[in-house]
Amino acid sequence: MTEPTPDKKPNLLQVIGSVLASLLGVQSGKNRERDFEKGDPKDYIGVYVALVVLFVIGMIVLVNMVIASAGR
Description:
Order of helices and strands: HHH
Strand content: under 5%
Helix content: over 70%
Number of domains: 1
Largest sheet: none
Number of strands: 0
Radius of gyration: 18 Å
Oligomer: single chain
Number of helices: 3
Shape: elongated
């Protein structure tokens, strides 16, 4: 007999991995089910917002670097 797995909330790395996978559109069905059944929506929304903000800041820095190097 197999024992049922305890209902454990996904940890921070699993949440970040799930958000990154969903942004790329490659989320597995198993992880998606785990996220919807055991995850807290606030965790996913917070990680998503943080990743989008980091992405936008990264794009601004990259564009400024390209513009600065083109002016030389």
